[in-house]
Each structure stands twice: as C-alpha cells, then as structure tokens.
Design goal:
The structure is a single chain. It contains 37 helices and 23 strands. By secondary structure, the protein is of the alpha+beta class. A hairpin with a 3-residue loop joins strand 4 (366-369) and strand 5 (373-376).
Length: 1060
C-alpha cells in the first residue's frame, strides 16, 4: 500500500496565498483606520487612560466608521454571514481569540457545526487563512520575520471573526492608537536606515499623507520625532522632514491650547480650527507664478460651480466673477441704499461734529482711508447680497463644514473712492493684509474673508483692487511681499508680475481671504468708484485689526456699562482719584496690573462677558461701601498674600510642575535641546497657571465680595485696581512691587546668577574670567530667564567653563525703567545691581547678550560691558504697541531712547557693540534708525538679515545660524579666535587708534603713552611712552594679548594710575 503524504508544493502555494490574503486585509484595515483617525480622533485627546478593545453597546450602534463598513464578500453576503455568526455566538468577546488562557476558543463544537454548514455558502470556505489572535496586535510579515500571535484557520472562520470585529467596532480608538504607534515606529526605523536624501523625502511624503498630525504621545513613544531630527541633520536637503517636524510642533502647541481647561472657548475653537487645517494640509507650499492671462483665467470663476470656485480660492486666496450676480433692478436698490447711507452719515454724524470729507477721522462705523477713500458702515444693509444664492453658495463652499461653529456676517459697508483731484492726485494704497493668520506659520483654511460687490464697473482707470495670489499662506507672503513692496516703492503705479488686477463689472463679485496681500488702486477717473463689501468669519474669531475706534452712537449695552461704572467711580473720594484727575474719563487701561482704573477694567469685563462683568461690578460696589479702615484692612491682607515667602514658593512649585508636564509632551518632540525662548502656548499656559494661583492667594476676599475667580483674572485685576485706588502713594507702590516681583516666570528675582552653575560645579582649577550678562525679553507677556538653549550648545554651562552667567529680568513691563521702589528709577537700580555683580565676580571682561526688550536692555547698560550682542532691540518706545503700561510716560521713554543712542555712539576700542535686525521688518528698521548713522562708527557693527519679522533670533535658530553668530561673538570677546579672526580684529582695532590717541598699555603695570604713527598694512602703532619719551612700534596682535585702554588727555598729563 502506497504511503499517503501532503504535497510540499501545494502546501507552499497555500501558505503564500494565506499570507497574501492576510496582507491585503491588513492594508485595507489600516487604510480605513487611518481615515477614521482623521475624522474621529483629536490630536489633543488624553492618552493617559487605557482603552478597552471591546466596544460598549453604545459604540456598536454608533455612526458607521470606515472600518465598520469594510466589505469582505458583498454587502449582502457579509450581512448574511454576520447574522449566522450572531445566531451562534450572541455575546462572544472577539478581542482575544485562540488557545491562550482568557481567549475565546476557535475549536468548539459550535464552531465545528457552523463551519461544516458553511460549505457551499462561503467562497473558498476551506482555504488556509491567518487570523490575528489579539485585535490590538499589528500584522507584519517579511522573508526574515513574522508577527507573533497568528493562528491558521479556514477562510470561513476568518470571515466570521473579522466581519464581526469590524461591524462591532473592535477596530476603534484603542486599535487606532496601537496602529499609530506601530506605523510611526516603523517609519522611524526606515528613516534610521535611509541612505540618501531621496529615500528620506519619499518616506516623509508617505508619512505626511498617512499621519499629517499624530498625537503627541505617539510622536514621543514611537521615536519618530528623534528620527526626523536625525534625518534632517544627516540630509539637510531633504526639506520635507524639517517642514513636517515644524508642522507637528505647531500642531502639538495648538493641541495644548485646545485641551487646556483654562482656555476660553474662542481660543479653544480657534486652536481646533487651525489644527483641522494642519491635518487637512490647507494651503500650497510654494507660490505659483503664471503669466497674466493664465492667472486671470484661473481666478475668474464665472461659469464654475461653487465647489470649483472654492478650490481655486483655497489655492490662491482670491477669486472673482465677471458675470453679474444682480440685475439692474437689484443693483439700483443697492446703489440707493449706499447713497442714503452716505447722505445720512454726512447729515446726522459728520456735520454735527464739524467734520468734512477732507478731514481725518476714524470711528467704528466710518473711517477716512488713505487715497481719498471713505469706508462707511453707517446705515448700510447687506440683506440683498445675503439672499443672493449665486454668491452665498460660493461663500459657504469656501468655509465648508467645521467644528468651529458656523460663519457669520461680521461687517458690511461701502468704500467710496472719490474722483481724482488734479491738484492732489489720487495714489494707490500701500500693500497690506487686513489681518494675520490665527498663528504665525500655521497653515489653516480661511477664518475670515471679504466679499466685494462693485456698484459700478471697476476698471484700471478707476482703481481696481490689486491682489497677490497665494499670499494668504504666510510662507508665500514672506517670499513674495518684499519684491512686491520694492516695486511699489520704486513706482507707486507699477504692477509686479505676480499681481492680479481684476476688472469686474457692476454686480460681479470678488472674494478674498483677509490674509491675502492687496491694495486699492488710484481712482484716476472723474467719477466715484463705489464698492459694497461684506466680511464673513467663523464665530470664534474676534476682529482686532479692522475696526477698533469709538462708535458714533454707543449701543444700549455700552451706555448701561458706562452709567454703571460712573456710579462706582462717583463712590470713590475725589481726593483718591489720583490717576483719573485731569484725564479723559475713557482711555486705554493699558496693562491690567498697572492701573487703578477699575472702572475701565469693569468696562472690559462687561464687554467680553456681561454676566461676569456684572458680578464683578456688584462686588466692587460692595467693596467701595466699606469705610476707610475696613478697606485698608483688606488692602493689607492683599499685600501680605503676595509678599509672603509661601506665595513665592507656591508659584515656583506650580510653574515647575507646569513646565515638567509640558516637557513630557512638547519638549520630547523637540529633542533634549533647551529652547532659548518659550512659545506663545507655553507663556499662555503659565499665565493661566499664575492667575489660578493668584485667585487662591486672595480667595477669601474674592469670595466674600463676589469677584469672579476666572482663568483670565478679571476678578483679581479689578480687586487689585480697587486696592490701589483706595490707597495712598506708598501703599500703591508696595502693591505694585508685591505683584510685580511675584508675577514672572523666574524663581530667583530680577538679577541672579544662573542656577545651572550651582548644579554643575566648575571643578578644581577652573578659571572663570568672563561674566556673561543675559537680559531677558518680554516674551509673550511673561518674563523668564532666556538663551539657555544656545548657551548650553556652546558649552557655556559645561564643567570647567570660563563663563559665569548673570540673568537680568524686568518683570515690571518697563524695559528696565522701573525699580522695586516704583519710582521709575530702573536705570539707576539695574546699573547698581550689575556693577555690584561685576565687582564681586572679579572677572577680566563683561559680556552682554539680549533679544527684543532684552536687546534694548543690553544696549541701555552697554557702557558697563566690554562686548554687547543685541538682537532686534526695541529702542524708541513712544507709540510702540508692545508697551502696555499706561503710566510709562513719554518723557521716560525719551530718556531711555537717548541713553541707548548715547551708549552706542560712545562705543569704541574697549567697548564693542554688535546689533542684528531684519532688513524687511519696517518697525525694526525704524528702531535701528533711531541710533543715528552707524555706518562708519568704529566699535559698532550693525548686521541686517533677509527677514521681515521681529522674531529674527528664532528664525536664525531655525536656519542653524544663531549658534554660529553667538559663538563667534563670544570667541571674539574672550580672545579665542583663529589666526584669521585675530588679524581681522587687529585691523579693526588699529583703526580705533588714530594719531594723537592717548593710551595705557599693560605689561607689568599700565604705561601711559601717545600714538604718534599708525601702519595699518603691518597692523602696527608707534607709541611714545611717558615720562621718558621712549618710542616703540607695537605689533597690534601682540598688544591684544595684553591690555590697552584709551584715556583722555587730562588723564595722560596728570599721570593717572590705571588699575587692572
């Protein structure tokens, strides 16, 4: 009898078929799960709690997902198989199947009967198949390895189990989390093994498509963040990796805002909206240049569907239609409405105020705009446009569906562009945007757009509006804006080749994102050019750029608020009104911590949250009803609460915990490298934390009177202002200083040595010869020690370092002008503190470093340093938007500016100043100009960079240039230069020693002399020494190694005794 055996070839074919079938299913399953993740999972979800793989009954019958709709045979066939399975296994747990303990067995009589009955009813019912035992396990199979946890089963059994798993939502949130970790880890391994930049780009593109914004936990746990950073370092030309990292960083920071319980609803909605834009990849990466005809053919959406028009809008930030959406009758109504609104404005509002159209005025309802234009919203209606389906269908398609609420009409008005006056010819507007992105560099869909409906034919002659397509995305705006602006500066009427200038007939329309760069053209015709406009935005967005002026007619709620706070102010004794005396009743309150105008704070409260504001107003009334002794008692309690050691300890502990929590999330994605400056999200998080602690410190008072204890600090700031209002000058100063010294991101006060030195001993024999003084900027409103990242990378804090770092902070928002005594003597106070540290450090040299406000601080005190490095200093503070203190006088600002200018002009041989700024940032350019002509100024180097924002140092760090700039500067300061740098420095310094200069040169002591000749080519100076008139040619590089000081003629003639 012949031996019976299996055919090895058939077994091999069967195994291959089973593997291919399993791989195909896994690919379909993971694709569907990724789509579900985009639609259902938020990148800010809490991953700290584990999820059960087995769904709840509510989840089973929830809205179908992509994984629940997967089809294996046919829709009808799958339904029959599922019904047959459920009739045999009603409540079976399929999260774990197989023979392991706790798993649902696949080898029971019920299964045997079901499978036998499936013969002929299930295609290929007996074919070998592979099933994953654990629903939360991944699938992978290569020639070298195979995932564990697979069992062989008949095809019918595979279908029964997987159809049930899909339909019963076993592939839900828990599975999607597992899948993200598995696939991102796989991508990380592939990046680590990539050998070319092409491989990195391909891997990055695939990953970006599958995971546009993973959860922060998935990024850190999988190691993909670290892998991307290493790929960027190994292959700098693989730009996709860097941009993906930046996108994820923005997404995680926005997620922090979206998940914060202390974020207000508008901020949270805005963050969620921006995150959705990141996930959906809103916007184009590069500006697309077309010839003029092609550009207008693309932007003109006449004849296109609303959806097609929306797609053009998302790409370009502007569309228009040359097909009129209104007939003559409807247009006539719109023109009449515009004319009546214009006449009513003149008769009812402007003439009673003795204003004419030639005057400059700015009200909430009407603005006199440059270029002989009037923007009028007074008695203007947009109902006819809102009822126009042809236009509104495009608007709705552009906004689309979003979790951010619904778009609504924000403004409507008419821009009247008046005819040309030969004596004062009209000119085009300056190029501008109507508003910024929600967050810088975060690509997101439009959150606000303008709709233009011309009431006459718009042509080049009467000033058609010009647009720069694609500039609604910040990256394109940054690339295109400088050239467009330069073209206009050279010739106001010139049109750059990227500009579109659509001619639109009356009744047509133009739609553009408020971020799209544009300008109104000059009306060179003899007739008015009137354009009706409507502004639409999402509910969460609040305009802070277009219309901010006082209203012509206060609404009822404004009148109520004014009357209410007037009653409260009247309750305060006139002798205590101090700040309000002789000032307008309504003015800008400034920073809420530095005012006693509680009435203005209450106005803001009532405007932003009427209910909360009403409660705070009632609480203020109860407080003011107290007698003077009772008020004084509460003021003293408030003062003690913020002056106590316990208050500072509590603040330090909470901020430290807040920082550690962030480091476990955001910082891990950035790597171990410390940042120089905190992000807006980090500052906002700490500000919210501080207000929470402040509410705790004075909780009893807040609760007793009924002040709100909100995360925005409304109740706290009103109480603080009340305490100041009812106190005398000395107590006011004590209150200001108590809150100022407490309200900051530092644990060590205003001037302190870096704690990094305390934890990292310099070691025996280390020579500390340089005091590095680091001035902090204002950040996003919360001062703290800065520059730790770059200084750490340069080894400043390393064991054996020659540096000692001193941090100088101004928590008073005063640009180092306010002192702890609150007498606006900050210059003297900070100078004395720095001098004291210089003296006690016994160092050979002092080096200053700062950015923004810190950059200005470094220049303000640079007469105390040998070397000063300043980035984008804020020097002229008059009218400067970042200065929020209403009590910061113009005179104090002028003294500050003048002192900086004098310090910089006095730089020279022994005081070197280096300043960096962005040449396309108009405000920073203005600030540098206040220093005067520095082009040929010895001892001062001003370096401009191709950048158009105030955040230059952040941009330089992104480009990998900041460390080199700071490092080279520090080398020059301490003399650690290479030969070429030494020679360059020698040439520079020789020029600082013209004939007739009196100097002191140190050998064994200082020898006084006069420079009588200079040889720049050989870098030598001839010095005649006193008292013997000995003459020596000094080789300048050799002199550098010693010490040389420029002195006055009086010191030379008196034989001054110079000390080291």
């Amino acid at each position: 009898m012949a031996e019976i055996s299996n055919d090895p070839e058939m077994e091999k074919l069967g195994a291959n078929a089973a593997a291919l079938y399993a791989q195909e299913f896994w690919q379909r399953l993971s694709n569907a799960a990724r789509v579900d993740a985009l639609n259902l999972d938020a990148s800010w979800d809490d991953w700290s709690s584990p999820l059960s793989p087995r769904p709840s009954p509510e989840e089973v019958y929830a809205t179908p997902t992509q994984t629940s709709k997967l089809t294996f045979t046919t829709a009808k066939g799958d339904s029959l198989l599922y019904a047959r399975f459920k009739s045999n296994f009603a409540n079976t747990d399929l999260s774990l199947v197989g023979d392991d303990r706790g798993a649902t067995s696949l080898h029971t009589e019920t299964w045997r009967s079901l499978l036998i009955a499936s013969e002929g009813n299930v295609p290929d019912f007996s074919f070998m198949s592979l099933i994953r035992c654990d629903v939360l396990s991944p699938f992978y199979m290569t020639q070298a390895e195979c995932c564990p946890g697979l069992v062989i089963c008949p095809r019918a059994q595979f279908l029964f189990v997987e159809i049930a798993r899909c339909r019963e939502r076993y592939y839900g949130a828990a599975f999607r989390r597992m899948l993200a970790l598995f696939e991102l880890k796989t991508f990380a391994e592939r990046l680590a093994n990539a050998g070319t930049d092409l491989e990195v780009r391909v891997i990055t593109e695939v990953m970006q498509g599958q995971y546009p914004l993973p959860h922060k936990k998935a990024i850190s746990t999988s190691g993909i963040g670290k892998a991307l950073r290493r790929a960027c370092a190994r292959f700098p030309s693989a730009a996709g990796a860097a941009s993906l990292l930046e996108r994820w960083r923005h997404g995680v920071e926005l997620g922090e805002l979206a998940s914060s319980v202390n974020s207000n609803s508008s901020l949270r909605d805005a963050a969620i909206f921006a995150i959705k834009g990141i996930v959906r990849g809103a916007g184009v990466e590069e500006p697309k240049r077309r010839d003029d005809d092609d550009l207008h053919a693309v932007l003109n959406v006449a004849g296109k569907t609303a959806r097609e028009a929306a797609e053009v809008f998302h790409e370009n930030g502007i569309v228009y239609s040359t097909e009129p959406a209104f007939g003559e009758e409807a247009l006539g109504k719109l023109r009449d409405m515009a004319a009546k609104g214009f006449d009513a404005l003149l008769e009812e509002q402007l003439r009673p105020r003795n204003l004419t159209l030639k005057d400059e005025f700015d009200f909430n309802e009407v603005r006199h705009r440059p270029g002989n234009r009037l923007d009028n919203r007074y008695k203007i209606s947009a109902k006819e446009v809102e009822d126009c389906d042809e236009i509104m269908s495009v608007v709705k398609a552009i906004f689309g569906a979003s979790d951010a609420g619904s778009p609504h009409l924000l403004y409507c008005g008419v821009v009247h562009s008046f005819p040309n006056d030969p004596e004062e010819p009209n000119e085009p507007q300056v190029w501008h945007r109507d508003g910024p992105s929600l967050w810088m560099d975060v690509k997101h869909p439009t959150h606000c757009l303008n709709l233009f409906v011309p009431l006459c034919d718009v042509t080049s002659e009467n000033g058609a509006t010009e647009f720069v397509p694609t500039t609604h995305q910040d990256s394109n705006f940054e690339k295109l804006a400088p050239d467009v602006v330069k073209t206009a500066e050279a010739d106001a009427f010139a049109i750059h080749d990227t500009v579109a200038k659509p001619s639109v007939p009356a009744g047509g329309f133009v739609l553009f994102d408020i971020r799209t760069m544009h300008r109104g053209g000059a009306n060179c015709s003899s007739k008015n050019r009137d354009i009706l406009y409507l502004t639409f935005s999402w509910d969460f967005w609040e305009d802070k750029h277009m219309f901010l002026a006082e209203k012509l007619i206060p609404d009822d709620s404004t009148r109520v608020r004014r009357e209410l706070v007037r009653c409260l102010v009247d309750m305060v004794d006139a002798s205590q009104s101090g700040e309000a005396e002789g000032e307008p009743f309504w003015k800008d309150v400034g920073h809420p911590h530095y005012t006693e105008r509680f009435d203005l704070l209450l106005m803001d409260n009532l405007g932003s949250n009427f209910e909360r504001g009403l409660g705070n107003a009632a609480a203020a009334r109860r407080f003011l009803n107290l007698n003077s002794l009772e008020r004084s008692s509460y003021v003293q309690n408030f003062l003690r609460a913020f002056s106590s050691v316990e208050a500072h300890a509590l603040k330090s502990s909470r901020l430290r915990s807040n920082r550690q929590r962030r480091e476990k999330t955001i910082a891990k994605q950035k790597g171990d490298t410390e940042e120089n400056f905190t992000s807006i999200a980090e500052d906002y998080s700490d500000v919210t934390c501080l207000y929470s602690i402040a509410n705790e410190l004075v909780a009893e008072v807040l609760q007793e009177f009924g002040f709100s204890q909100d995360g925005d600090g409304d109740g706290f700031t009103v109480l603080l202002a009340l305490c100041k209002r009812v106190s005398n000058g000395g107590v006011k100063s004590m209150l200001e200083e108590a809150v100022t010294s407490w309200w900051n991101g530092s644990e060590h006060g205003r001037v302190f040595y870096s704690p990094k030195h305390a934890t990292e001993d310099a070691g025996e024999g280390a020579l500390v010869d340089t005091l590095l003084v680091v001035f902090s900027s204002l950040g996003s409103g919360l001062v703290r020690p800065e520059w730790g990242g770059t200084l750490s990378q340069l080894g400043v804090f390393n064991k054996g370092s020659r540096y000692k770092v001193l941090h100088v902070l101004d928590p008073a928002y005063s640009w180092f002008n306010q002192d702890p005594g609150c007498e606006w003597k900050g210059g003297e106070w900070f100078e004395a503190e720095i001098k004291k540290r210089v003296y006690e450090s016994s160092v050979e040299r002092v080096v200053f470093l700062g950015d923004s406000m810190g950059g200005a601080g470094a220049l303000r005190f640079c007469h105390l340093s040998n070397f000063t490095l300043s980035f984008t200093p804020q020097i002229d503070l008059i009218g400067y938007e970042a200065v929020k203190r209403a009590d910061f006088t113009a005179e104090a600002k002028r003294r500050f500016k003048d002192r900086i200018a004098r310090n910089v002009q006095e730089a020279g041989l022994n005081r070197y100043v280096e300043i960096h700024y962005g040449e396309h940032c108009l405000e920073d350019v203005r600030q540098i100009k206040t220093l005067g002509n520095l082009e040929d100024k010895e001892g001062v180097e001003v370096r401009k960079h191709d950048f158009d924002d105030h955040t230059l140092s952040i941009d330089l760090k992104k480009k990998g240039q900041l460390e080199s700039i700071v490092g080279k500067f520090l080398k020059r300061a301490v003399g650690e230069m290479d030969e070429e740098e030494i020679q360059e420095d020698a040439r520079r310094k020789v020029k600082l020693l013209p004939v007739g200069t009196f100097v002191g040169v140190y050998y064994d002591k200082y020898h006084l002399g006069e420079v009588i000749d200079v040889n720049e080519n050989e870098r030598k100076v001839l010095i005649k020494y006193s008292p013997n008139n000995d003459e020596y040619w000094e080789d300048y590089p050799a002199v550098i190694e010693d010490d040389i000081r420029v002195i006055s003629r009086e010191d030379f003639e008196s034989g001054v005794d110079l000390k080291m």
